[in-house]
Amino acid sequence: MKERTYLSTAALCLGALAWLTSITYAQKAPAYAQKPTGMAKAEAISQQLGLTPQQKVKVLPILRDEAPKVQAIKNSNSLTRMQKAQQIRAIHQQTDPQMKAILTPEQYQKLQAIRKQTIKEATQTLAR
């Protein structure tokens, strides 16, 4: 009888430990599993574009300003896919002349591809 109680207690403790571990993991997901913030996205884009230090100084503030606006549109449940795409394009068009003046033609093409992907992601979130 004592052995059965011991085994039941051990099983309960292991179950509780597994449950607590899963809760802790969900609260503290690793960096790669977390959604990037506006600043992190701006940094990631600057790395993808291969910006020089001089370009970074000029481009990062533009991207950091743009990121929360785009994220708000992506997260909006009240907008249709078409409205999301239109609003994100409008934000990109506002900063486009500044970016084009700073970036090389190759970097600008990469930026256009990144922005196209952003619009695609924003319009797909509604379909999920």
Write the layout of secondary structure elements.
Layout: H1 2-27, H2 38-49, H3 53-75, H4 81-102, H5 105-124
Helix pairs in contact: 2-3, 3-4, 4-5
Brief synopsis:
With 128 residues, the chain is mainly alpha-helical.
Intertermini distance: 53 Å
Which ranges are low-confidence, i.e. pLDDT below 50, for 5 or more consecutive residues?
Answer: 16-21, 23-35
The number of strands is: 0
Radius of gyration, taken over Cα atoms and rounded to an integer in Å:
23 Å
User: Which percent bin holds the helix content?
Assistant: over 70%
The whole-number mean of residue pLDDT values reads: 78
SSE order, as H and E?
HHHHH
Provide a count of the helices: 5
Name the quaternary structure.
single chain
Strand percent estimate: under 5%
Biggest sheet record:
none
The helix/strand class is mainly alpha
What would the principal axes of the Cα set say about the shape?
A: extended
Task: Describe what you observe in this structure.
The chain is extended, with a radius of gyration of 23 Å. The protein has helices at residues 2-27, 38-49, 53-75, 81-102, 105-124. Helix 3 (53-75) runs antiparallel to helix 4. It has 128 residues and is mainly α. It starts with a helix and ends with a helix. Helices cover 80% and strands 0% of the residues. It is built from five helices and no strands.
Key terms for this structure?
single chain; 128 residues; mainly alpha; 0% strand; extended
